[in-house]
Amino acid sequence: MALAAAITALEALFGTRFTQTRPEREAHGHSEAWFPLTPPDAVVYPETTEEVAALMKICAAEGVPVTGWGAGTSLEGHALPLKGGITVDFTRMNRIVDLSAEDRLVRIQPGLTREELNTELRATGLFFPVDPGANATLGGMASTRASGTTTVRYGTMRDNVAALEVVLADGRVIRTGSGAAKSASGYDLTALFLGAEGTLGLITELTLRLHGQPEAISSAVCAFDTLEAAVETVQTTIQMGIPMARIEFVDEEVARIFNAINGTHLPEKPHLMIEFHGSDATVAEDSRRFGEVVADMGGADFQWATTTEDRNRLWKMRHEAYLACLASRPGSMGLITDVCVPISRLPEAVERGREMIAKAGLVGPILGHVGDGNFHAILLLRRDDAAELAKAKEVAHDLAHMALEMGGTITGEHGIGAGKRGLMAAEHDAAWQVMGQIKAALDPQGLLNPGKIVPGPEDAA
Amino acid sequence: MALAAAITALEALFGTRFTQTRPEREAHGHSEAWFPLTPPDAVVYPETTEEVAALMKICAAEGVPVTGWGAGTSLEGHALPLKGGITVDFTRMNRIVDLSAEDRLVRIQPGLTREELNTELRATGLFFPVDPGANATLGGMASTRASGTTTVRYGTMRDNVAALEVVLADGRVIRTGSGAAKSASGYDLTALFLGAEGTLGLITELTLRLHGQPEAISSAVCAFDTLEAAVETVQTTIQMGIPMARIEFVDEEVARIFNAINGTHLPEKPHLMIEFHGSDATVAEDSRRFGEVVADMGGADFQWATTTEDRNRLWKMRHEAYLACLASRPGSMGLITDVCVPISRLPEAVERGREMIAKAGLVGPILGHVGDGNFHAILLLRRDDAAELAKAKEVAHDLAHMALEMGGTITGEHGIGAGKRGLMAAEHDAAWQVMGQIKAALDPQGLLNPGKIVPGPEDAA
After folding, report:
1. Is A329-416 in the same CATH topology as A216-320?
2. In angstroms, rounded to a whole number, what is the distance separating the alpha carbons of residues A182 and B66?
3. Which residues in chain B are closer than 8 Å to A282, comparing Cβ atoms?
4. Which of A433, A89, A167 has the alpha carbon at shortest distance from A453?
5. Option in A158, A200, A408 nearest B180 (CB)
6. Smallest CA–CA distance from B210 into chain A, residue
7. B427 inside 8 A of chain A by CB
8. Which of A281, A442, B221, B245 is deepest in the core (most CB within 10 A)?
């Protein structure tokens, strides 16, 4: 590759928004997860779609890899430039381009974060519901098909992105989707770019679907003797059509850690945390009906709340679970697993997961978005303990294979990135080669986020 | 192409399930719409995925086109074999393969119709919600990304297909998706095949998401003085978060025709028909709140009902609108337009549509899935009147361009088929070429439903 030529051209184009300093390169070469440092050769900060297209044309002409960067909150090393080249940091492209409150659509640039967007929307009565926990950029969330606690009601990024603007590997700019609520007009390119992790194009604008802020919110929390009782409660609640906005599970180990760190006296049992959105009357009715299901399932310590303060108190254990887990083992880091199984298999999956963790001699509390069948183990590892990291990776690998056996997926929401490409053949078999054919058609030089998602030469069918 | 060789091989493979009789060929060469007769060279009735794969390998080797066929209810000539070849009639592949009530998933073959599926599901407490009106096959509905009256609540086929099995152009069989509620595992191939109209592969199995039959259903109907008041009522209802299961609009012309045909005395005004699904308490509350919105908007003749009989009476005008329209002009046929616009533009779009129809001297009552911004004009044409057909096509074309100007789409739910490929460049611009690149990657000989969706040599960029 003619990296030097590309660098000269990009420096001329971006001026001070082009950098090769070591701190900048290193800041774009590490992630929140356990992956080794992988810095790009240079970082640029575009401000317009035209700049991204110009950059892409330069890199296409010179054969230089290009990797997008949002907030760097990925847990699977998505934005690590495995083959060097240019990292495109989108944080200066963080404007709201257009808000159509009547159509509940907002056009934004990809570097805007979800919290920034919701702050801007506060006065409109609307909000963007997808909540992966981290304050990720919306371009990053789109690229990883993110989801989170509200998915059981509002869906994932797949359901909440109406349209995209994308710069392709050859610098062409395309628009996918429309402002209509639905369309049957040709291939669903919007869906194709969502979750493509920047391997098919760079997202430069998103049109997002917004939702009305609920008139009323109520939350409930309860403890169960067994995991099975908790999960059966979720299944019954879904079956009854009670429209949950969130439904989260934490296991007894999370409760135990939370009590130890915070001096609380919560029952050290599996808990469910649930939230309802609606009118005052409907959330009261939903909470009442949910309470009946809980009682039938032998749930205890049932509490519900409608004020913000009381709701936050009830959800505190969930919100602070990750930090409490880290604090419980000072100096540790977390390797967070992420599988999703058909909900009927969830109790067995969590149980087997727990056994795998115990057998490996690891500490790994479990929590999850139980309404989706998606759960995480927070494997707490000593930093720089290669043996423990190897064991944790093995547990993550075994959990993924277990999910596949059960008809599930190797990743519910964290994506493939640098961490899970080795599992793609197991999940997708011949369909993985089809992904490779699409990649080759749209990025024949393999410049966009190379080394991610699709088969490499070493994986030939 | 070596059609003769393919025919010899297919005859040997399929025996009596291979046919070249004229009635069979003609039955698979016409559609419900106005397109000219386009029979295939032969029709086969596979019973297994393996047979479809074997057929595809034969046709790939001989370069013979292959087009799928479901119930033939397409309104845009999707299944017309424009370049002849083999039509694959899926009606013998109509089994339920596996039902997982706990996971609310059902695996089915593509030739099963949505009514057959819902009949089979009746005892389970579950149902499949996508309702395009016609009793289409689920493979056909998947291939056209169908939607319908319940989309405002339950979504389109895009939202209700979890996984697919697909035979590719070279005979490989792949599986996309999983039984999990969500996944972030690589390219969304499921979404890519949905709406591809059989141009990328033949769907041989579907895993569908089911929903709980609502405990209670209530319906309401009301008349408005103006279209604007009706649409504003819909917008406000959405904004208030009242969870509508269906919301349909018919214009005053539909009401007038319905009265004339049925001897009823409904107000000859725009009407809204709405349906709520939930518990007894929540549907009563939803109906009450909706009634308040209607009163604020000056709606009249507000009626609501919860028994099946009363609900059917209220919805009669909607259910029978198409037949009443045809009956109002004996011997006519309908050309049905299908655009979808951002909901804020809907009143203007319907108004302008009405003007276009009047200016063309046509009769064309308007109705639609107003919660989605999707509406249809039923252009009533004399059979074999070429001048009237030409005018109707021009109105449909102008409506599509109007929808694009408004940020909408040329088709909300009927798809592209033989009728709308000429509008693809206008909607998708450079993205249409990307669809062509994907097609070329997966079907380099262009054998699957040729002449549909993607650019041909004549459309080169």
Report:
1. yes
2. 28
3. 282, 285
4. A433
5. A408
6. A239
7. yes
8. B221
A74-101: average pLDDT? 96
Measured between alpha carbons, how far is A316 from B174 in angstroms, rounded to an integer? 44
Per-residue pLDDT reduced to its tens digit, A261-296: 888 888 999 999 999 998 888 899 889 999 999 999
Count Cβ–Cβ pairs < 8 Å, chain A vs chain B: 287
Q: Where are the domains of chain A?
A: 3-91, 93-212, 216-320, 329-416
Fold of B329-420: Alpha-Beta Plaits (3.30.70)
Chain A residues near residue B438 by CB distance under 8 angstroms: 187, 192, 438, 441-442
Which range has the worst mean pLDDT, A118-122, A203-207, A298-302? Answer: A298-302
CATH of domain B216-320: 3.30.70.2190
A212 and chain B: CB distance < 8 Å anywhere?
Answer: yes
CATH architecture, domain defined by A93-212: 2-Layer Sandwich (3.30)
Cα dihedral A368/A369/A370/A373 (nearest 10):
-100
List of chain A residues whose C-beta atoms are within 8 Å of the C-beta of residue B407: 178-180
Q: Which residues contact B416 (CB under 8 A, 6 or more apart)?
A: A184, A185, A186, B76, B78, B197, B424, B452, B453
The topology (CATH level 3) of A3-91 is 3.30.43
Q: What is the pLDDT averaged over residues A196-219?
A: 95
Give the pLDDT confidence score for residue A273 in this predicted structure: 93
| Two structure tokens written together for B210 | 């089911």
* Contact across the interface for A412 and B184, Cβ inside 8 Å: yes
- Band (pLDDT 50/70/90 cuts) for residue A306 is confident
Q: A427 vs B172: CB contact, 8 Å cut-off?
A: no
Is the pLDDT at A461 greater than 70? The verdict is no
What pLDDT shows up at residue A1? Answer: 54
Return the bridge partners of B113, or none.
Answer: B137
Q: How far is A317 from chain B (nearest CA, A)?
A: 25
B residues 435..454 contacting A (CB < 8 A) = 435, 437-438, 440-442, 453-454
The residues, ordered by sequence, that sit 6+ positions from A328 with a Cβ below 8 Å of its Cβ are A257, A260, A261, A380
Give every residue of chain B whose pLDDT is below 50, as ranges: none
Q: How far apart are CA A255 and CA B142, in angstroms?
A: 44
Q: Under an 8 A CB cutoff, do A434 and B175 touch?
A: no
User: What is the CATH topology of the domain spanning B1-213?
Assistant: 3.30.465
Beta-strand relationship, A216-223 and A161-167: unpaired
CB contact B185 to A (< 8 Å): yes
Q: Sorting pLDDT into bands at 50, 70 and 90, what band is A303?
A: confident
**Contact criterion met (CB < 8 Å) for A428 and B186:** yes
Contact B353, B367 (CB under 8 A): no
A288 part of contact set with chain B, CB < 8 Å: no
* ipTM computed for the complex: 0.96
Mean pLDDT within A368-378: 94
Rounded mean pLDDT of chain A?
94
Helix/strand/coil (H/E/C) assignment for every residue in B169-198: CCCCEEEEECCCCCCCCCCCHHHHHCCCCC
Q: Which residues of A touch B341 (CB under 8 A)?
A: 179-180
pLDDT given for residue A331 in this prediction: 87
CA distance B15 to chain A (A): 30
pLDDT in tens, A140-162: 999 999 999 999 999 999 999 99
Q: Please report the pLDDT score of residue A458 as a whole number.
A: 76
Residues of B in contact with A245 (CB under 8 A): none
Q: What fold, for A329-416?
A: Alpha-Beta Plaits (3.30.70)
| Band (A317; pLDDT cuts 50, 70, 90) | confident
Q: Any idea which residue has 């005859």 for tokens?
A: B11
Query: Across the interface, do B340 and A181 touch by the CB < 8 Å criterion?
Result: yes
Half-sphere exposure of B132 (CA within 13 A, CB side): 26
Q: Hey, is the C-beta of B194 within 8 angstroms of any chain A C-beta?
A: yes
Residue A460: the pLDDT is 61
